[in-house]
Automatic annotation (TrEMBL):
InterPro entries: Abn2_C (IPR032291), GH43_arabinanases (IPR050727), Glyco_hydro_43 (IPR006710), Glyco_hydro_beta-prop_sf (IPR023296)
Listed PANTHER family: ARABINAN ENDO-1,5-ALPHA-L-ARABINOSIDASE, ARABINAN ENDO-1,5-ALPHA-L-ARABINOSIDASE A-RELATED
Residues with site note (Important for catalytic activity, responsible for pKa modulation of the active site Glu and correct orientation of both the proton donor and substrate): D191
Biochemical pathway: Glycan metabolism; L-arabinan degradation
Protein's organism: Halalkalibacter akibai (strain ATCC 43226 / DSM 21942 / CIP 109018 / JCM 9157 / 1139)
Lineage, uppermost ranks: Bacteria, Bacillati, Bacillota, Bacilli, Bacillales
Keywords annotated in UniProt: Glycosidase, Hydrolase, Membrane, Transmembrane, Transmembrane helix
Domain Extracellular endo-alpha-(1->5)-L-arabinanase C-terminal span(s) in chain numbering: 372-484
GO MF entry, a single one: hydrolase activity, hydrolyzing O-glycosyl compounds
Pfam families the record matches: GH43_C, Glyco_hydro_43
Active-site residues annotated for this sequence: D68 (proton acceptor), E247 (proton donor)
Keyword Nucleotide-binding: no
Protein name per its UniProtKB record: Glycoside hydrolase
Length: 490
């Protein structure tokens, strides 16, 4: 063979070898994204989350001014109904409605009402704002549950409106349940969430820190209480201390796991707001968290509750907006997929509240966990070990501290070690996208290792504005939510 042919053959060989390494995903994360499909960018360029130019232009609000949202899918569209909320001015009353065809791009489509009904206004001493609605489809029509309350009191009213169309018009049907400072009810008539049991019978979970969270049965024909005046059964409580609030209940049923899951918001809505969860075999409870605590228990440690498994909390990744007030969630089952929506306030201006939509995954032991990144249309697919080698940002949500949690560095090395090539800590990835992180803790952990099992998936990196890979799960030791995001270099 001539020298020229040898050189050509050698060059071709090198190109093939390099190409194989890139496709296989080995080495640094510059090429770790090969052979995987990723969501498209949600917009042409990063979105400014504090934009005073759109304050009074509803057509450009998109996710802005969204608070206490509840979500429903009708045909091929998604609708979010939310509290009357606005930055920099008093909001127009009526329950805001937003619409999307992909859970990513949202348009403001109007309001349900023009004003609070006279009966409701009288009971709440002139309150003008609708709070925390929920809407369900039943009996071939739509049932909208709304609440109005005199702020800081138990003078509260849950009402019902119905419509043949999700976009209205709506007819007010009056009282479902009301409370006042003079009555003997423990519950506060606010924040209704509607859920169906195994027999498709509707129930309403509702309440707040004023007296706890209750669930009561509804009459399927009228949409109102099965037993008028019955507050039902308490399913969660933290006492009446305003520094330890809980509110915004929602329940979903997973038929494959045969559990009901109760989500709640703990903390203060402008900063420490966070989503916690418990599960039960029965719709009326008891709802237990990851550590077996009953959500009705009032247990505090260092001023923060050690009850309820926190799955979303205030957080900050590098190079982007830090988020707080990450609470008051809604839940959606869409085919085989589950989603959670919630408020999120920009830390640099806490009055700007946005809608966040996240995909939910399910742990091996049956707990829902949220994606670290807002949904951008990603699909589940197989991830290879080579795809996840590199530098990550990791967030661990302390169950006892509800302040904002900032990411820390985590490195998954090619030799299977974590952070250091000689470390006793190591990782492995299974064929079903379960990443196991083994943390060496001799004489402390079972078999000397805490094993955190997290789910790996693709995502859009909203902070760095590029495609990435993420993980989410609960750690073995405390059941604390752990998020991770691969740092993708140019």
């Amino acid at each position: 063979m001539s020298k020229k042919r040898v050189v050509i053959f050698f060059v071709i060989f090198i190109v093939v070898v390099i190409g194989f390494v890139v496709v296989a995903g080995g080495g640094s994360n510059q090429h770790s994204l090969a052979q995987i499909e990723y969501p498209l960018a949600p917009a042409d360029e990063p979105i400014n989350m504090v934009n005073e130019a759109i304050l009074f232009n509803e057509s450009k609000w998109t996710t802005n001014h969204t608070h206490d949202g509840e979500i429903i899918k009708v045909d091929d569209s998604y609708y979010v109904f939310s509290t009357d909320y606005m930055v920099g001015a008093d909001p127009t009353p009526g329950i805001m409605v937003r619409k999307s065809t992909d859970l990513v791009h949202w348009e403001f489509v109007g309001r349900v009402f023009e004003s609070v009904p006279e009966e409701v206004s009288e009971h709440t001493n002139g309150a003008t704002i609708f709070w925390a609605p929920d809407v369900v489809e039943m009996n071939n029509k739509f049932y909208l549950y709304y609440s109005v309350s005199e702020f800081g009191t138990k003078n509260s009213f849950i009402g019902l409106a119905t419509s043949d169309s999700i976009e209205g018009p709506w007819v007010d049907r009056g009282e479902v349940f009301k409370t006042s400072v003079q009555d003997d009810y423990a519950v506060n008539a606010i924040d209704p969430g509607i859920v169906f049991d195994r027999n498709d019978q509707p129930w309403m979970v509702f309440g707040s820190y004023q007296g706890g969270i209750f669930i009561t049965e509804l009459d399927r024909e009228t949409g109102k209480l099965m037993n008028p005046g019955d507050q039902g059964t308490m399913v969660a409580n933290k006492g009446s201390d305003l520094h330890q609030p809980l509110e915004g209940p929602a329940i979903m049923y997973n038929n494959e796991l045969d559990y009901f899951y109760l989500t709640l918001s703990y903390g203060w809505l402008e900063d420490t707001y966070n989503v916690r969860i418990g599960r039960s075999k029965e719709i009326t409870g008891p709802y237990l968290d990851y550590n077996g605590n009953d959500l009705v228990d009032i247990a505090t440690r260092t001023g923060s509750p050690d009850v309820g498994t926190k799955i979303i909390g205030p957080y900050g990744f590098e190079n982007g907006d830090d988020w707080q007030g990450t609470g008051h969630n809604g839940l959606l089952k869409d085919g085989d997929d589950y989603f959670i929506i919630h408020n999120a306030r920009v830390e640099r201006n806490k009055f700007w509240s946005h809608l966040h939509v996240r995909k939910l995954f399910w742990t091996e032991d049956g707990w829902p966990i949220a994606s670290p990144q807002r949904y951008a249309g990603e699909t589940e697919q197989e991830i290879k070990s080579g795809n996840i080698i590199g530098e990550w940002e990791q967030i661990v949500f302390d169950r006892l501290d509800d302040r904002i949690t900032f990411s820390k560095k985590l490195t998954l090395l090619e030799n299977g070690k974590i952070n250091d090539e000689t470390s006793e800590d190591y990782w492995e990835l299974t064929n079903d996208n379960i990443l196991r992180l083994y943390w060496h803790a001799p004489d402390e952990a079972p078999n000397d290792y805490w094993v955190d099992s997290v789910i790996v998936a693709t995502a859009w990196d909203w902070e760095n504005w590029n495609e990435t890979i993420v993980f989410s799960g609960l750690n073995q030791r405390y059941g604390e939510a752990i998020w991770g995001k691969l740092v993708v270099h140019d």
